[in-house]
Structure formats: C-alpha cells, structure tokens
Amino acid sequence: MPPSKRAGGHGQRRRRALLTELSDAGRWSLTRPDEASPAGPAQASAAAAESVEHIAWRLLERYGVVFWRLIQREAAWLPPWRDLLRVYRRLEARGEIRGGRFVSGMTGEQYALPDAVAALRQVRQRERDGDIVCVSAADPLNLTGGVLAGTKVPRIPGARIAFRDGVAVASLLAGQVEWIEELPADAQREVQRLLQRRPGGAAAAADTRIDEVMRHLGLSVR
Length: 222
Known about the structure:
It is a single chain. The protein is α+β, with helices and mostly antiparallel strands. It is 40% helix and 13% strand. Strand 6 and strand 7 form a beta hairpin. Helix 3 (41-63) packs across helix 4 (81-93) and helix 5 (114-124) packs across helix 7.
C-alpha cells in the first residue's frame, strides 16, 4: 500500500478515536488545575464532605422526609447511604433537622425537615375526598414498587401515573391506561380522562410542594 494511503488510514483512525474522547461526551468545560483539584488530602476530604452535605440537603428539600427506601431508585448517582447518614446525624445533633419514625411501615433511620413534620401531621387529619392527581412517571412522586405498594411504573418519556387519595390507581404507558387499583366506573372514567389529557397546562401541572407531595403519597406521622 502506498505511504500516502497508509498515512490516510492512520489519520482516519485518529479522527475516529478523537470522536470518542471527552469532547464528544456531552456538555463540558475546561478548568484550571488549581480549580480542578484541591491542594492536598485535607482539602480533598473537606470538599468531598461538603459535596455529600449538599446532596443530603437537596434530598431533604425534594422529599421533606428521607430514608433509604425512599431514595433507593436514585442510589446509582448518590453517595453511599452510610455517608448520608453521617451527615443527617450531624445535622440532627445541631438541631437543624429532625430524626425519628415519621413514615409508618418503613424500617431504618428517617430524617425530616421540621416543616415537613408539621405538614405530615396536618395531612393525617384530612379526610379523603377522592382527589385525583396525575404526574409524570419521571416525577419524584413516582415511588411505585418501592415506598408505595403495587407494580413499579418505569420512568420513561410520556408515562404518567394517577393518584387517588394518595394511592397509585393507574398508569399511562405507550398511550394505554393500565389499572393498578380497581375503581368504581365513574372514578375510572375520570382517571382515564385526566391521564390522557395533554400535559403542560397550568391545570395539569402537579404541585410538588412538600405538603402536597406528602398528601398525595398518603404518608403518615406516628
């Protein structure tokens, strides 16, 4: 083979190799070396601890109450639960969060924001009124097959879940309604209508504030 063709083959392989490097992996940016890594082991340890505490707070802000079973689906990207526990124990000792048994039927340590505990107590006193709420399967409210009983609804685009009085009763997968709980005929029609309604409007948006989240999940305070 002529040298020019051999060189061209090497060049093509080089270009293909470059396409698999970091620049082709998605959104990224350069950082200076002094920003990319701490000066020593002590600084690295402090940065790691700060990162874990940041994640621990974000989980509390998302759910109000945090325990292992609740975040099990997100474990792939989270720090180890034992590291989060150390943070939560420290925050409880400082009086910033509460520790206890807030959600019945769940084992292990549980930690909550003070406001979430108050909201849960209020939820416990509310009467069930048949309220139906539909959310995306990608929403943090999708705790089916884990915290909530029933079949797990996959977190795929377009999938939705209907909750009635905090209980997952149906899901919408590939345009088809699949029933999780048996309902009266009139309730079934309303659930099906809400699941198949095009999401995006203000009326269809789920309110994920902590009091509403806990209300629709039906979590209870002991």
